[in-house]
Amino acid sequence: MALMTFKHELIFKLVISFAIFHMVIAGDPDILSYFIVPPNVTIVDSNFFTFTGMRILLGAAPPTAFKVSKASIAEFLALNGQSVSYAILQYPAASVNPPHTHPRSAELLFLLDGSLQVGFVDTTNRLFTQTLQAGDLFVFPKGLVHYQYNSDAKNSAIAVSAFGSANAGTVSVPNTVFTTGIDDGILAKSFKTDIATIQKIKAGLAPKA
C-alpha cells in the first residue's frame, strides 16, 4: 500500500512539474476555446484545419540557396492559439542558415537527410556545437542566437523544425545589424573596424538587382 502511495505521489508531482514547465516555456497565451476563427472566415470545416502549402516541395527541383518554407500563423490561420508551428529547411551543398534568433520559441530540429553543423550561443557567450547526421534531433533554446551549416560541398540536406509558438518570429543577426540603417560609424566602433569594411559588408547583404 505504501508503495502504491509513493508511486501515486511521484506521478502527481511529475504531472504538476510538467504543467508548470509547460506554462513557463509557452510562447503563446492560452485561449478559452479549442480554436480561434478569424473574423473574415465564415465557413469552418476540415479545410480550415488543413494546410497544403508544402505540396509544392514534393517533386520540385532543389533550391540553389538555403530555403525555408513555413507553416506559421501567417500561412496557416488555424494555428492561431495552438502554440505550434512548423518549417521545412532546405540546404543546398555548402549553404548556411545564418545566425538568427526566435524570440518567442525554442526550435526542435529533425534532420531528415544529409549532415549539418549546428550551434547556438548562450548568454555567457558559450558556444555549443554539434555535427548532425540524418535521424538526429537538436534543440535550440528559446531566444538564443543559433545557426545551421551544410559543410558538404556536394550533397544537400533537409530538415524539419517544430516551434512552440504559432508565431516564433525570426531575427536575422546579419540583416538586423547591417541592413536596418544603423550608422556606419557606430557599427565600425562596435566591431572595432573601419567604415569601409562596414560598407563592404552592407553591400554584400544588399538585395541583388
Keywords:
Jelly Rolls; alpha+beta; signal; 209 residues; 4 helices; apoplast; secreted; 5-stranded antiparallel β-sheet; RmlC_Cupin_sf
Could you explain how this protein is built, in words?
By secondary structure, this protein is α+β, with helices and mostly antiparallel strands. It has a domain of about 120 residues: Jelly Rolls (Sandwich), CATH 2.60.120. It has 4 helices and 10 strands, in the order αββββββββββααα. A 5-stranded antiparallel sheet has the order 1-2-9-4-7, with no helix packed on it. It has a 5-stranded antiparallel sheet with strand order 6-5-8-3-10. β5 and β6 form a beta hairpin. α3 packs across α4. It is globular and about 60 Å long. The termini are far apart. About 5% of the residues have low confidence. One of its GO terms (cellular component) is apoplast. This is Germin-like protein. It is found in: Secreted, Extracellular space, Apoplast. May play a role in plant defense. Probably has no oxalate oxidase activity even if the active site is conserved.
